[in-house]
Known about the structure:
This protein starts with a helix and ends with a helix. It has two domains: 12-203 and 352-440, 3-Layer(aba) Sandwich (Aminopeptidase); 206-349, Alpha-Beta Plaits (2-Layer Sandwich), CATH 3.30.70. Strand 4 and strand 5 form a beta hairpin. It has 14 helices and 19 strands. Strands 1-2-6-3-7-18 form a six-stranded mixed β-sheet, with helices on both faces. Strands 8, 9, 16 and 17 form a four-stranded mixed β-sheet that branches. Helix 2 crosses helix 14 (425-440). The protein has 442 residues and is an alpha+beta fold. The chain is globular and about 80 Å long. It binds zinc ion (ZN). Zinc ion is lined by residues 89, 121-122, 155, 183.
Amino acid sequence: MTSDAASARPDPTAEVVDLCRDLLRIDTTNTGDNDTSVGERRAAEYVAEKLAEVGVESVLHESAPGRANVVARIPGADPSRGALLVHGHLDVVPADADEWSVHPFSGEERDGYLWGRGAIDMKDFDAMVLAVVRHWQRTGVRPPRDIVLAYTADEEAGSDYGARFLVENHRDLFDGCTEAIGEVGGFSYSVNDSQRLYLIETAEKGIDWLRLHAKGRPGHGSMVHDDNAVTALAEAVARIGRHRFPVVVTDTVRAFLEEVSDLLGIELDPNDPETAIAKLGPIANIIGATIRNTANPTRLAAGYKDNVIPGRATATIDCRSLPGQSELLERQLRELVGPDIAIEYVQRQPALETTFDGDLVEAMSAALRAEDPGARPVPYMLSGGTDAKAFSQLGIRCFGFAPLRLPADLNFSALFHGIDERVPVDGLQFGVRVLDRFLRTC
Ligand SMILES: [Zn+2]
Protein backbone atom coordinates (compact mmCIF):
# COMPACT_ATOMS: atom_id res chain seq x y z
CA MET A 1 0.00 0.00 0.00
CA THR A 2 1.34 3.41 -0.85
CA SER A 3 1.55 6.08 1.79
CA ASP A 4 -0.89 8.11 -0.33
CA ALA A 5 -3.53 5.45 0.10
CA ALA A 6 -2.83 5.30 3.82
CA SER A 7 -3.15 9.04 4.25
CA ALA A 8 -6.38 9.08 2.23
CA ARG A 9 -8.01 6.94 4.91
CA PRO A 10 -9.75 9.03 7.53
CA ASP A 11 -7.93 8.97 10.85
CA PRO A 12 -10.32 7.50 13.44
CA THR A 13 -9.44 10.23 15.93
CA ALA A 14 -10.53 12.82 13.36
CA GLU A 15 -13.53 10.85 12.21
CA VAL A 16 -14.87 10.35 15.73
CA VAL A 17 -15.57 14.08 15.97
CA ASP A 18 -17.71 14.03 12.81
CA LEU A 19 -19.52 10.87 13.88
CA CYS A 20 -20.26 12.26 17.32
CA ARG A 21 -21.43 15.59 15.87
CA ASP A 22 -23.75 13.80 13.43
CA LEU A 23 -25.25 11.75 16.24
CA LEU A 24 -25.71 14.80 18.46
CA ARG A 25 -27.62 16.50 15.66
CA ILE A 26 -30.17 13.70 15.57
CA ASP A 27 -32.66 14.51 18.31
CA THR A 28 -33.26 11.15 20.01
CA THR A 29 -35.18 12.49 23.01
CA ASN A 30 -36.74 9.75 25.09
CA THR A 31 -39.71 11.13 26.97
CA GLY A 32 -40.73 7.75 28.33
CA ASP A 33 -43.77 7.86 26.05
CA ASN A 34 -43.74 6.21 22.60
CA ASP A 35 -45.88 8.96 21.06
CA THR A 36 -43.43 11.73 21.91
CA SER A 37 -40.08 9.92 21.82
CA VAL A 38 -38.38 10.78 18.56
CA GLY A 39 -35.36 10.11 16.45
CA GLU A 40 -34.13 6.73 17.68
CA ARG A 41 -34.94 5.18 14.33
CA ARG A 42 -33.02 7.86 12.46
CA ALA A 43 -30.01 7.40 14.72
CA ALA A 44 -30.19 3.62 14.32
CA GLU A 45 -30.32 3.98 10.56
CA TYR A 46 -27.37 6.34 10.67
CA VAL A 47 -25.33 3.77 12.62
CA ALA A 48 -26.37 0.94 10.28
CA GLU A 49 -25.38 3.06 7.28
CA LYS A 50 -21.97 3.93 8.75
CA LEU A 51 -21.36 0.24 9.40
CA ALA A 52 -22.57 -0.77 5.94
CA GLU A 53 -20.21 1.76 4.30
CA VAL A 54 -17.28 -0.29 5.55
CA GLY A 55 -18.86 -3.69 4.93
CA VAL A 56 -20.34 -4.50 8.34
CA GLU A 57 -23.82 -5.96 8.10
CA SER A 58 -26.21 -5.16 10.89
CA VAL A 59 -29.79 -5.95 11.83
CA LEU A 60 -32.29 -3.33 12.89
CA HIS A 61 -35.04 -4.34 15.30
CA GLU A 62 -37.94 -2.09 16.16
CA SER A 63 -39.65 -2.77 19.45
CA ALA A 64 -42.41 -0.25 18.64
CA PRO A 65 -42.76 2.18 15.73
CA GLY A 66 -39.68 4.39 15.74
CA ARG A 67 -38.01 2.64 18.68
CA ALA A 68 -35.08 1.04 16.84
CA ASN A 69 -32.07 -1.01 17.93
CA VAL A 70 -29.07 -2.00 15.78
CA VAL A 71 -26.93 -5.09 16.34
CA ALA A 72 -23.90 -6.34 14.37
CA ARG A 73 -21.31 -9.04 14.87
CA ILE A 74 -17.68 -8.65 13.84
CA PRO A 75 -16.02 -12.05 13.53
CA GLY A 76 -12.90 -12.51 15.59
CA ALA A 77 -9.73 -14.48 14.96
CA ASP A 78 -10.64 -17.16 17.48
CA PRO A 79 -14.33 -18.10 17.21
CA SER A 80 -13.95 -20.62 20.04
CA ARG A 81 -13.57 -17.80 22.54
CA GLY A 82 -16.61 -16.11 24.03
CA ALA A 83 -17.69 -12.91 22.33
CA LEU A 84 -17.37 -9.42 23.79
CA LEU A 85 -20.52 -7.31 23.72
CA VAL A 86 -19.96 -3.58 23.20
CA HIS A 87 -23.18 -1.68 23.85
CA GLY A 88 -24.30 1.93 23.80
CA HIS A 89 -27.71 3.56 23.88
CA LEU A 90 -28.79 6.06 21.25
CA ASP A 91 -31.57 7.80 23.17
CA VAL A 92 -31.08 10.87 25.35
CA VAL A 93 -33.05 12.56 28.10
CA PRO A 94 -34.98 15.71 27.14
CA ALA A 95 -33.23 19.09 27.00
CA ASP A 96 -34.79 22.54 27.27
CA ALA A 97 -33.08 24.73 24.66
CA ASP A 98 -33.87 27.91 26.65
CA GLU A 99 -31.59 26.77 29.47
CA TRP A 100 -28.60 25.98 27.27
CA SER A 101 -25.70 28.14 26.03
CA VAL A 102 -25.93 26.41 22.62
CA HIS A 103 -28.82 24.57 21.03
CA PRO A 104 -28.83 21.08 22.61
CA PHE A 105 -29.10 19.37 19.22
CA SER A 106 -26.67 21.57 17.31
CA GLY A 107 -23.55 19.47 17.89
CA GLU A 108 -21.65 22.73 18.06
CA GLU A 109 -17.89 22.68 18.58
CA ARG A 110 -16.76 25.45 20.90
CA ASP A 111 -13.84 25.95 23.32
CA GLY A 112 -12.48 22.49 22.64
CA TYR A 113 -15.76 20.75 23.38
CA LEU A 114 -18.56 19.19 21.37
CA TRP A 115 -21.79 20.42 22.93
CA GLY A 116 -25.12 18.69 22.92
CA ARG A 117 -27.57 16.45 24.73
CA GLY A 118 -25.94 13.02 24.72
CA ALA A 119 -22.35 14.32 24.43
CA ILE A 120 -21.29 12.21 27.41
CA ASP A 121 -24.43 10.09 27.82
CA MET A 122 -23.59 8.46 25.55
CA LYS A 123 -23.21 9.40 21.92
CA ASP A 124 -19.53 9.99 22.62
CA PHE A 125 -18.99 6.29 23.17
CA ASP A 126 -21.34 5.35 20.31
CA ALA A 127 -19.17 7.45 18.01
CA MET A 128 -15.88 6.08 19.40
CA VAL A 129 -16.94 2.50 18.75
CA LEU A 130 -18.05 3.39 15.22
CA ALA A 131 -14.76 5.18 14.54
CA VAL A 132 -12.66 2.22 15.70
CA VAL A 133 -14.71 -0.37 13.82
CA ARG A 134 -14.66 1.68 10.62
CA HIS A 135 -10.91 2.12 10.92
CA TRP A 136 -10.41 -1.62 11.38
CA GLN A 137 -12.59 -2.50 8.44
CA ARG A 138 -10.64 -0.13 6.21
CA THR A 139 -7.27 -1.43 7.35
CA GLY A 140 -8.07 -5.13 7.71
CA VAL A 141 -7.79 -5.41 11.49
CA ARG A 142 -9.49 -8.44 12.96
CA PRO A 143 -10.33 -8.54 16.67
CA PRO A 144 -9.00 -11.47 18.71
CA ARG A 145 -12.55 -12.72 19.35
CA ASP A 146 -16.06 -11.97 18.11
CA ILE A 147 -17.29 -8.51 18.98
CA VAL A 148 -21.03 -7.90 19.11
CA LEU A 149 -22.08 -4.28 18.72
CA ALA A 150 -25.43 -3.25 20.14
CA TYR A 151 -26.84 0.26 19.76
CA THR A 152 -30.00 0.45 21.79
CA ALA A 153 -33.12 2.54 22.24
CA ASP A 154 -34.86 3.47 25.47
CA GLU A 155 -32.08 3.18 28.05
CA GLU A 156 -33.19 6.43 29.62
CA ALA A 157 -36.68 5.10 30.43
CA GLY A 158 -35.93 1.62 31.70
CA SER A 159 -34.80 -0.22 28.50
CA ASP A 160 -38.16 -1.88 27.81
CA TYR A 161 -37.97 -0.90 24.12
CA GLY A 162 -34.19 -1.32 23.95
CA ALA A 163 -31.86 -3.73 25.73
CA ARG A 164 -34.65 -5.55 27.57
CA PHE A 165 -36.59 -6.00 24.34
CA LEU A 166 -33.51 -7.44 22.62
CA VAL A 167 -32.68 -9.75 25.52
CA GLU A 168 -36.25 -11.05 25.73
CA ASN A 169 -37.00 -11.34 22.00
CA HIS A 170 -33.70 -11.68 20.15
CA ARG A 171 -31.34 -13.33 22.57
CA ASP A 172 -29.68 -15.30 19.74
CA LEU A 173 -28.00 -12.05 18.69
CA PHE A 174 -25.89 -12.36 21.84
CA ASP A 175 -25.01 -16.05 21.49
CA GLY A 176 -21.64 -16.75 23.04
CA CYS A 177 -21.24 -13.31 24.63
CA THR A 178 -19.42 -13.76 27.92
CA GLU A 179 -18.40 -10.20 28.78
CA ALA A 180 -19.58 -6.71 27.95
CA ILE A 181 -18.51 -3.08 28.09
CA GLY A 182 -20.78 -0.05 28.04
CA GLU A 183 -21.46 3.04 30.15
CA VAL A 184 -20.71 4.46 32.86
CA GLY A 185 -16.99 4.03 33.46
CA GLY A 186 -13.49 4.52 32.11
CA PHE A 187 -13.56 8.28 32.75
CA SER A 188 -10.75 10.06 34.55
CA TYR A 189 -10.68 11.88 37.84
CA SER A 190 -7.56 13.96 38.35
CA VAL A 191 -5.76 13.48 41.64
CA ASN A 192 -2.95 15.86 40.67
CA ASP A 193 -1.11 16.92 37.52
CA SER A 194 0.56 13.56 37.05
CA GLN A 195 -2.02 11.05 38.31
CA ARG A 196 -5.52 10.26 37.27
CA LEU A 197 -7.94 7.68 38.58
CA TYR A 198 -9.94 5.93 35.86
CA LEU A 199 -13.17 4.68 37.35
CA ILE A 200 -14.15 1.36 35.81
CA GLU A 201 -17.66 0.28 36.69
CA THR A 202 -17.76 -3.22 38.16
CA ALA A 203 -20.98 -2.86 40.13
CA GLU A 204 -24.37 -1.15 39.88
CA LYS A 205 -26.96 -0.61 42.51
CA GLY A 206 -30.36 -2.20 42.05
CA ILE A 207 -33.46 -0.25 41.09
CA ASP A 208 -36.36 -0.65 43.49
CA TRP A 209 -39.05 1.86 42.58
CA LEU A 210 -42.16 1.48 44.65
CA ARG A 211 -45.52 3.05 45.17
CA LEU A 212 -47.05 3.48 48.59
CA HIS A 213 -50.81 3.25 48.86
CA ALA A 214 -52.64 4.65 51.86
CA LYS A 215 -56.37 4.13 52.35
CA GLY A 216 -58.67 6.03 54.68
CA ARG A 217 -62.27 7.06 55.13
CA PRO A 218 -63.38 9.74 52.67
CA GLY A 219 -65.13 12.68 54.23
CA HIS A 220 -65.85 16.40 54.45
CA GLY A 221 -62.85 18.64 55.07
CA SER A 222 -64.72 20.70 57.68
CA MET A 223 -65.30 17.86 60.16
CA VAL A 224 -63.34 15.98 62.80
CA HIS A 225 -61.69 13.10 60.97
CA ASP A 226 -59.28 10.51 62.40
CA ASP A 227 -58.78 8.26 59.36
CA ASN A 228 -57.21 10.52 56.74
CA ALA A 229 -55.27 8.76 53.95
CA VAL A 230 -53.23 11.91 53.21
CA THR A 231 -52.07 12.18 56.81
CA ALA A 232 -51.14 8.49 56.99
CA LEU A 233 -49.27 8.66 53.70
CA ALA A 234 -47.46 11.87 54.61
CA GLU A 235 -46.21 10.32 57.85
CA ALA A 236 -44.91 7.24 56.05
CA VAL A 237 -43.24 9.33 53.32
CA ALA A 238 -41.57 11.56 55.89
CA ARG A 239 -40.25 8.56 57.84
CA ILE A 240 -38.72 7.10 54.67
CA GLY A 241 -37.36 10.42 53.48
CA ARG A 242 -35.58 11.09 56.77
CA HIS A 243 -34.29 7.58 57.27
CA ARG A 244 -30.58 6.89 56.91
CA PHE A 245 -29.91 3.27 56.05
CA PRO A 246 -26.85 1.66 57.62
CA VAL A 247 -23.46 1.83 55.90
CA VAL A 248 -22.47 -1.36 54.08
CA VAL A 249 -19.11 -1.35 52.31
CA THR A 250 -19.09 -3.90 49.48
CA ASP A 251 -15.93 -5.40 47.94
CA THR A 252 -16.07 -2.95 45.04
CA VAL A 253 -16.41 0.13 47.21
CA ARG A 254 -13.73 -1.11 49.61
CA ALA A 255 -11.29 -1.65 46.73
CA PHE A 256 -12.07 1.83 45.43
CA LEU A 257 -11.68 3.53 48.79
CA GLU A 258 -8.41 1.77 49.57
CA GLU A 259 -6.88 2.81 46.26
CA VAL A 260 -8.12 6.39 46.50
CA SER A 261 -7.08 6.82 50.12
CA ASP A 262 -3.62 5.54 49.29
CA LEU A 263 -3.32 7.93 46.38
CA LEU A 264 -4.65 10.97 48.22
CA GLY A 265 -2.89 10.18 51.47
CA ILE A 266 -6.24 10.05 53.31
CA GLU A 267 -6.59 7.97 56.44
CA LEU A 268 -9.32 5.43 55.71
CA ASP A 269 -11.32 4.32 58.71
CA PRO A 270 -13.25 1.20 57.60
CA ASN A 271 -15.95 2.01 60.17
CA ASP A 272 -16.36 5.53 58.88
CA PRO A 273 -15.94 5.61 55.09
CA GLU A 274 -17.96 8.83 54.87
CA THR A 275 -15.13 10.99 56.17
CA ALA A 276 -12.84 9.78 53.41
CA ILE A 277 -15.57 10.10 50.78
CA ALA A 278 -16.25 13.72 51.78
CA LYS A 279 -12.70 14.58 50.67
CA LEU A 280 -13.27 13.37 47.10
CA GLY A 281 -14.68 16.62 45.74
CA PRO A 282 -16.96 16.31 42.70
CA ILE A 283 -17.15 12.49 42.78
CA ALA A 284 -18.17 12.38 46.45
CA ASN A 285 -21.81 12.44 45.29
CA ILE A 286 -21.33 9.36 43.14
CA ILE A 287 -19.36 7.33 45.68
CA GLY A 288 -21.40 8.49 48.68
CA ALA A 289 -24.52 6.87 47.23
CA THR A 290 -22.82 3.47 47.03
CA ILE A 291 -22.24 2.76 50.71
CA ARG A 292 -25.87 2.36 51.71
CA ASN A 293 -29.33 1.68 50.39
CA THR A 294 -31.19 4.87 49.59
CA ALA A 295 -34.88 5.81 49.39
CA ASN A 296 -36.01 9.16 48.05
CA PRO A 297 -39.70 10.14 47.81
CA THR A 298 -40.28 11.53 44.31
CA ARG A 299 -44.04 11.81 43.68
CA LEU A 300 -47.24 12.38 45.64
CA ALA A 301 -50.83 12.06 44.49
CA ALA A 302 -54.08 12.48 46.39
CA GLY A 303 -57.35 14.35 46.38
CA TYR A 304 -59.51 16.14 43.84
CA LYS A 305 -61.10 19.03 45.76
CA ASP A 306 -59.92 21.40 48.47
CA ASN A 307 -62.65 20.49 50.96
CA VAL A 308 -62.92 16.74 50.32
CA ILE A 309 -60.83 14.24 52.29
CA PRO A 310 -59.87 11.60 49.73
CA GLY A 311 -60.11 7.89 50.43
CA ARG A 312 -56.73 7.15 48.89
CA ALA A 313 -53.28 8.66 48.60
CA THR A 314 -50.19 7.40 46.80
CA ALA A 315 -46.51 8.24 46.78
CA THR A 316 -43.61 7.02 44.69
CA ILE A 317 -40.27 6.24 46.29
CA ASP A 318 -37.07 5.87 44.28
CA CYS A 319 -35.07 3.26 46.17
CA ARG A 320 -31.65 1.95 45.17
CA SER A 321 -30.31 -1.21 46.76
CA LEU A 322 -26.78 -2.45 47.22
CA PRO A 323 -25.87 -5.84 45.73
CA GLY A 324 -27.75 -8.56 47.62
CA GLN A 325 -29.77 -6.08 49.69
CA SER A 326 -33.05 -5.74 47.81
CA GLU A 327 -35.02 -8.11 50.10
CA LEU A 328 -33.51 -6.55 53.20
CA LEU A 329 -34.44 -3.10 51.92
CA GLU A 330 -38.00 -4.26 51.36
CA ARG A 331 -38.22 -5.46 54.99
CA GLN A 332 -36.72 -2.19 56.23
CA LEU A 333 -39.26 -0.20 54.22
CA ARG A 334 -42.20 -2.27 55.47
CA GLU A 335 -41.09 -1.55 58.99
CA LEU A 336 -40.83 2.18 58.26
CA VAL A 337 -44.25 2.53 56.64
CA GLY A 338 -46.15 0.35 59.12
CA PRO A 339 -48.85 -2.25 58.51
CA ASP A 340 -51.56 0.02 57.07
CA ILE A 341 -49.71 1.25 54.00
CA ALA A 342 -49.47 -1.10 51.00
CA ILE A 343 -46.23 -1.31 49.02
CA GLU A 344 -46.33 -1.99 45.29
CA TYR A 345 -43.16 -2.41 43.23
CA VAL A 346 -43.32 -0.55 39.92
CA GLN A 347 -39.76 -1.40 38.91
CA ARG A 348 -37.40 -3.91 40.40
CA GLN A 349 -34.08 -4.60 38.73
CA PRO A 350 -31.22 -6.35 40.48
CA ALA A 351 -27.93 -4.83 41.53
CA LEU A 352 -24.80 -6.12 39.78
CA GLU A 353 -21.32 -6.75 41.06
CA THR A 354 -18.32 -8.45 39.50
CA THR A 355 -14.69 -8.67 40.53
CA PHE A 356 -11.97 -6.35 39.32
CA ASP A 357 -9.67 -9.01 37.94
CA GLY A 358 -9.01 -11.24 34.94
CA ASP A 359 -7.75 -10.74 31.41
CA LEU A 360 -10.36 -8.23 30.35
CA VAL A 361 -9.63 -5.94 33.31
CA GLU A 362 -5.91 -6.30 32.52
CA ALA A 363 -6.59 -5.29 28.91
CA MET A 364 -8.58 -2.21 29.99
CA SER A 365 -5.92 -1.16 32.46
CA ALA A 366 -3.05 -1.70 30.01
CA ALA A 367 -4.81 0.31 27.30
CA LEU A 368 -5.39 3.20 29.70
CA ARG A 369 -1.80 3.18 30.94
CA ALA A 370 -0.44 3.06 27.40
CA GLU A 371 -2.32 6.25 26.50
CA ASP A 372 -1.95 7.94 29.89
CA PRO A 373 1.13 6.95 31.91
CA GLY A 374 -0.47 8.60 34.97
CA ALA A 375 -3.53 6.33 34.81
CA ARG A 376 -4.62 4.45 37.93
CA PRO A 377 -7.56 2.21 37.00
CA VAL A 378 -9.93 1.54 39.93
CA PRO A 379 -13.21 -0.35 40.25
CA TYR A 380 -16.27 1.51 41.39
CA MET A 381 -20.00 1.05 41.87
CA LEU A 382 -22.52 3.13 39.93
CA SER A 383 -25.47 4.33 41.99
CA GLY A 384 -27.72 4.36 38.90
CA GLY A 385 -28.66 1.68 36.41
CA THR A 386 -27.69 1.02 32.79
CA ASP A 387 -28.45 -1.46 29.99
CA ALA A 388 -25.96 -3.75 31.76
CA LYS A 389 -28.87 -4.82 33.97
CA ALA A 390 -30.64 -6.32 30.97
CA PHE A 391 -27.55 -7.88 29.40
CA SER A 392 -26.47 -9.43 32.68
CA GLN A 393 -29.69 -11.47 32.53
CA LEU A 394 -27.97 -13.46 29.78
CA GLY A 395 -25.14 -14.38 32.15
CA ILE A 396 -22.84 -11.74 30.64
CA ARG A 397 -20.23 -10.19 32.93
CA CYS A 398 -20.73 -6.46 32.49
CA PHE A 399 -18.32 -3.56 32.92
CA GLY A 400 -18.73 0.17 32.51
CA PHE A 401 -15.81 1.13 30.28
CA ALA A 402 -16.27 4.04 27.90
CA PRO A 403 -12.79 5.58 28.17
CA LEU A 404 -12.60 9.36 28.40
CA ARG A 405 -9.83 11.59 29.64
CA LEU A 406 -11.31 14.68 31.24
CA PRO A 407 -9.85 18.06 32.21
CA ALA A 408 -9.13 18.29 35.95
CA ASP A 409 -11.58 21.14 36.50
CA LEU A 410 -14.58 19.63 34.70
CA ASN A 411 -17.47 18.58 36.95
CA PHE A 412 -18.24 15.47 34.96
CA SER A 413 -21.03 14.05 37.10
CA ALA A 414 -22.98 17.32 36.86
CA LEU A 415 -23.07 17.01 33.07
CA PHE A 416 -25.07 13.76 33.12
CA HIS A 417 -28.60 14.79 32.16
CA GLY A 418 -27.40 18.33 32.94
CA ILE A 419 -27.52 21.67 31.15
CA ASP A 420 -24.70 22.36 28.64
CA GLU A 421 -23.71 18.71 28.41
CA ARG A 422 -20.46 18.57 26.44
CA VAL A 423 -17.51 16.34 25.77
CA PRO A 424 -13.91 17.49 25.38
CA VAL A 425 -12.74 16.81 21.83
CA ASP A 426 -9.31 15.65 22.96
CA GLY A 427 -10.97 13.38 25.50
CA LEU A 428 -13.05 11.84 22.75
CA GLN A 429 -9.92 11.23 20.70
CA PHE A 430 -8.16 9.76 23.71
CA GLY A 431 -11.11 7.40 24.09
CA VAL A 432 -10.74 6.21 20.50
CA ARG A 433 -7.06 5.40 21.04
CA VAL A 434 -7.73 3.53 24.28
CA LEU A 435 -10.65 1.64 22.78
CA ASP A 436 -8.63 0.70 19.71
CA ARG A 437 -5.86 -0.75 21.90
CA PHE A 438 -8.26 -2.45 24.25
CA LEU A 439 -10.38 -4.09 21.56
CA ARG A 440 -7.26 -5.40 19.79
CA THR A 441 -6.27 -7.16 23.02
CA CYS A 442 -9.65 -8.17 24.42
ZN1 LIG B 1 -26.56 6.66 29.62
